[in-house]
Amino acid sequence: MVNPNLSHVNRARRLSSKFPNFYETQSAKKNKLHAFLTPRKPLTTRLTKYEPRLFDKERVALTFNDVRSEDEDSDEKLGKEFSSLNLHLPGQLSVGLKLEMFEGNFTQAARLRFFDDSDLFVHYEGWGVEYDEWVPKSRAKLRESNSKYIRFGPNKSESDLDWDAIKSRAAQAQKEGHTGIVFDSTMLLHECTCDEPELWHPEQPERVVRLLTALDTEGLLDLCIKVKPRLVTEEELALAHHPSHIQTYGLGSATYPKVAPTLEVMACGGSGLACDTAYNTLYTPPAALMASGCVVELVKEVLTGNLRNGFAIVRPPGHHAEPNEALGFCYFNNVAIAAKVALRTYNIQRVLIVDWDIHHGNGTQSIFYDTNEVMYISVHRHDNGTFYPFSGKIEEHGVGVGEGFNVNIPFQNKNGMGDIDYLAAMHHVILPIARLYQPQLVLVSAGFDAAEGDAIGEYHVSKEGFSHMTHLLGALAQEKLVLCLEGGYDVDALSSCAKACLRTLLDGRPTLLPTVSPIKGKRLSPSRQATRVFKKVLESQKKYMPDLATPDSFVLPTDEYITIAKGLIRKEGRLRPRRS
């Protein structure tokens, strides 16, 4: 777990901001420059706007009773009140069924969205899809039309016609669904304690809310099998993280007694790690534990054959989290933990992790740097070591038995890479290495901050480009593919790109590339700078994979793309490649 090649990156630098200009700009805009100079008592807890549906404070206490000790008797109280209800459901359940869910002293209107033999996946009427959740059947009853205690969300009751469409899509998923999705509202609660977190912090709950809303609007959520979320266990965390890390960022237990993290006041006035990684004492630990647990559960469903592939919509992200350090918005390394659990539990020996986030996954690299059970391949912006997290050089191959199983594709061009550069990396570097490795599971650290429009990444990958990368990786490992959300801070770009990837997982086809200009006869070549990087990576990797070939040309397979669409273009309609 030690990466000697990172000795040049001191701790202070690694804790610097992913996007320092952003925080300077925001401080100037809000006239809060005094925050850098004037000590302020940090707030460590704050009620957030995403506390589960706001109307039910008791429910929050029930969810996190390990944190809020004053509510220890809530479970017993809830059980007594449930026992007094006349709960009943019909023998034949159907999507769209109108339900009442017990919520304190009243009932909440809900609709049945998905179900299995023991539990229901319900949507709370009038509330956003981000609050949909799995509940036991014992918590629901048929809705009574004359109930005076029933409540709806701020959007009121919902149309039966809309639910007819949902019912049709859900029936298709129940019959032939092979793609799983997992999310949980617990992860919305992780938010900075400052007054305006949505202004100061790119990694915010709205990323997931907007993404789930977009998936719901397109009808994609109902085509997916809903995987039950859970908190990751301490035993699972210990596979990737040191005990002291679990003590600091977990909930605490007899095995791992809670230790308070060392926090500082950030420019926004909230508390966190370094200058940009917000920490909320009450909500960050359960959110981070839930994120890791969700990925572990989705991987389990894929490896046990219940699903072919899936997408984990989780936050906080994880690929920067080191074995013993939280960094860059990340607390626990979600993908690394899932890979470790897969190797230990499901009788597989080779896992491929592809990281296409704009930032190098320093934490994932560190965790697997000395093992050959995981092949880690990262394509990222590097800028000769000046781009966060300042790691990810070609020369970082791994150590010991892990040497040759860590591959970095570090782009240097500050003007921004695009579709052809990334797809060429897939065709000519990532896929050839992956085929020689023969993975039994493919995990993707799916960050979307390389997307067109993301101010942190400043790259130009389109939603179609991400869709094609998903399609190409889906041909490996007998289609056992799991995407895990990492970065992506322009909510519109994030939503459109993730939506395209999920659609590809569902139907097995990439999103059609733009058709403004015909490409027949055009050379789909990556930039010269990208070509130089590809050659260096392949020549370096040949030491460990002698059968790996360096192609004469890094042009994309034109015929393949002609059959898919008419052109690969930039946003303005101009063909790639660039001549820089």
How would you explain this protein's 3D organization?
- The protein has 580 residues and is an alpha/beta fold.
- The chain has two domains: 120 residues, SH3 type barrels; 386 residues, Histone deacetylase domain (Arginase, Chain A, 3-Layer(aba) Sandwich), CATH 3.40.800.20.
- It is 31% helix and 13% strand.
- The protein is built from 17 helices and 17 strands.
- An eight-stranded parallel sheet has the order 8-7-12-17-16-13-14-15, sandwiched between helices. Strands 1, 2, 3, 4, 5 and 6 form a six-stranded mixed sheet that branches. A three-stranded antiparallel sheet has the order 9-10-11, with no helix packed on it.
- Strand 13, helix 12 and strand 14 form a beta-alpha-beta unit.
- Helix 10 packs across helix 11, helix 13 packs parallel to helix 14 and helix 13 packs parallel to helix 16.
- The longest helix has 20 residues.
- The protein is globular.
- The C terminus is likely disordered.
Task: Write a brief caption for the model.
By secondary structure, the chain is α/β, with parallel strands linked by helices. It is 31% helix and 13% strand. The protein has two domains: 57-176, SH3 type barrels, CATH 2.30.30.140; 179-564, Histone deacetylase domain (Arginase, Chain A).
Name of the CATH first level of the largest domain: Alpha Beta
Helix share bin = 25-40%
| SSE-based structural type | alpha/beta
Strand order, largest beta sheet: 8-7-12-17-16-13-14-15
Shape assignment:
globular
Radius of gyration, whole Å: 24 Å
- Tell me the total number of β-strands: 17
Task: Supply the CATH superfamily name of the largest domain.
Answer: Histone deacetylase domain
Instruction: Summarize the biggest pleated sheet.
Output: 8 strands, parallel
Q: What's the number of structural domains?
A: 2
Strand content: 5-15%
Tell me the number of helical segments per DSSP (H or I, 4 or more residues long).
17
Quick check: average pLDDT? 83
The CATH architecture of the largest domain can be named as 3-Layer(aba) Sandwich
**Remind me, CATH topology of the largest domain?**
Arginase, Chain A
Calculate the terminal CA-CA distance, rounded to whole Å: 38 Å
Q: Uncertain spans, ≥5 residues at pLDDT below 50?
A: 26-47, 52-87, 515-521, 565-580
